[in-house]
Design a protein that fits this description.
Layout: E1 19-24, E2 28-32, E3 45-49, E4 52-57, E5 63-66, H1 79-87, E6 91-92, H2 97-103, E7 113-115, E8 134-137, H3 141-146, E9 167-169, E10 177-179, E11 182-187, E12 194-198, E13 207-212, E14 219-222, H4 230-234, E15 242-243, E16 249-250, H5 256-269, E17 275-278, H6 283-289
Parallel strand pairs: 5-7, 7-8, 8-9, 14-17
Antiparallel strand pairs: 1-4, 2-3, 2-6, 4-5, 10-11, 11-12, 12-13, 13-14, 15-16
Length: about 300
């Protein structure tokens, strides 16, 4: 298969605003790799972070949180999710997002915006801990919530995930610019400092963040659940899929072909200078940086 053309990321303007990006502890999840990586064996299991992030605009000081990680109260999840946790994906939350913020001197009550990468249970955290925040979610999220639990007992999405009256449900036509390898993006502040990326394939509404991290051309890509193993981005391994006894295809992504396309686009960033790509469940990065200056109140250094 031919490589995707790689348009260059735009050069910074004079006095270019950028984002200061900090990691947040948001709980740990056990990932059996054979659910995500083709040809992985059942004994290949990673205990990974479910990372969240604090982003602050360099010139205005406006800040937002990207993802809220795992809930400590697993009993509040839908029954299907509790089954996942009990059978395959044990969790532990030594420190929640709101606790991570408070420990770093940021009052969760002052958070004005929370962007959720998507509505899967290990990213939604406790929205009630952010009573003054508006929530931003991607296209199709409203429909997932409307068809969610408890109205649909078989759903793994909570219909009450976020307060609709304080939520911005993005539409497909909000993603009206292209940038680098990504054909659908939203210039969030209108100044080229932060782009929301329509990250197709994993789940309806999955959005990633592409942000400048310096005024001279450094970037970070927060990839959410684009992939659950860095080797999928490098092309060393392939996305897992199989079939249950009824013949239904099983895959960690709702639309496998679209997910593979997006993985290839994100993988293209690895070939670019000064671009840091970070997955939500990036075990190696977490192991190298846990407890260090990449976590709030520190900042992930520009590449």
């Amino acid at each position: 298969m031919a490589d995707i053309p790689i348009p260059a990321l735009p050069e910074p303007k004079a006095n270019q605003p950028y984002m200061k990006v900090s990691a947040l502890e948001a709980g740990m999840i056990t990932l059996p790799l054979h659910f995500f990586v083709k040809d992985a064996t059942p004994d290949e299991v990673n205990v990974c972070p479910s990372l969240a992030f604090f982003l602050q605009h360099s010139s205005s000081g406006v800040h937002l949180v990207y993802d809220l990680g795992i809930r400590r109260d697993a009993a509040s999840y839908p029954p299907l999710v509790r089954t996942f946790i009990d059978k395959w994906m044990p969790i532990e939350v030594p420190q929640s997002v709101e606790e991570s913020l408070s420990k770093a001197g940021v009052d969760p009550n002052t958070i004005e915006t929370v962007v959720l990468s998507h509505l899967h249970w290990d990213h939604i955290g406790e929205p009630s801990a952010f009573p003054n925040a508006n929530f931003v979610v991607g296209p199709g999220s409203r429909e997932l919530m409307e068809a969610g639990y408890p109205e649909n007992p078989a759903s793994d999405i909570l219909s009450s995930t976020i307060p609709s009256e304080r939520s911005r449900f993005l539409a497909a036509d909000d993603f009206n610019v292209s940038i680098g390898p990504f054909p659908r993006a939203l210039d969030y502040f209108g100044d080229g400092s932060l782009y929301l990326i329509d990250a197709i394939g994993h789940l309806a509404g999955h959005i990633n963040i592409l942000a400048r991290t310096s005024s001279d051309g450094s970037w970070i890509y927060l990839a959410g659940d684009t992939a659950h193993d860095v080797r999928l981005l490098t092309g060393e391994r392939e996305v897992a899929f199989g079939f249950d006894p009824s013949g239904k295809m099983l895959c960690a992504h709702a639309h496998k072909d679209d997910a593979v396309e997006h993985i290839r686009r994100v993988g293209a960033l690895l070939k670019m200078p000064k671009v840091h790509v970070l997955l939500a469940h990036d075990l190696d990065w977490y192991g190298a940086n846990k407890g260090g200056p990449a976590f709030l109140p520190g900042v992930i250094p520009p590449k």
